Amino acid sequence: VECDLSHDYKTKIMLAGGWTELAPVDVNSKVREAAAAKIAESVSGATIAEVIKASSQVVRGVNTMLLTRLNTGAHYIVVVWFDLKNYIVTTLKEYTGSLANFTWPMRE
User: How confident is the model at residue 18 (pLDDT cuts 50, 70, 90)?
Assistant: First the structure.
């Protein structure tokens, strides 16, 4: 949601429960670190080469979804939950669909 708070600038407001798209460069470094650690632990020899898309959701903390491209060429979805103390990876799932058609949350 964008709110025009003055004639000089706009800001995005995160609504509780809804997902808000983020620019990949705006993803918190601690979220990136948690995602990278989980990828390294779960996918042999893999590192995050690029964050393609990102979204966040406020729910008793903050969920951040990253659609990533790994150095292996595979794409993974990583969801990191920050509970105001810890960064916890709650979802790690390979994504094999079309990047052009990717939406979050995914429809099963």
Answer: confident
pLDDT category of residue 47 using cuts at 50, 70 and 90:
very high
42 token code pair: 């779960």
Burial profile 20-53: b = 16 or more Cβ within 10 angstroms, e = fewer: eebeeeebbeebbebbbebbeeebeebebeebeb
Q: What fold is seen in the domain 18-95?
A: Nuclear Transport Factor 2; Chain: A, (3.10.450)
Query: For 43-102, where are the E strands, in sequence order?
Result: 48-58, 62-70, 75-82, 87-95
Q: Which helix (H) or strand (E) is 4 found in, with range?
A: strand 2-4
Residue predicted with more confidence, 8 or 56: 56
Structure-token match 């601690």, residue found: 30
Q: Where are the domains of the chain?
A: 18-95
The count of other CB atoms within 10 Å of the CB of residue 69 is 16
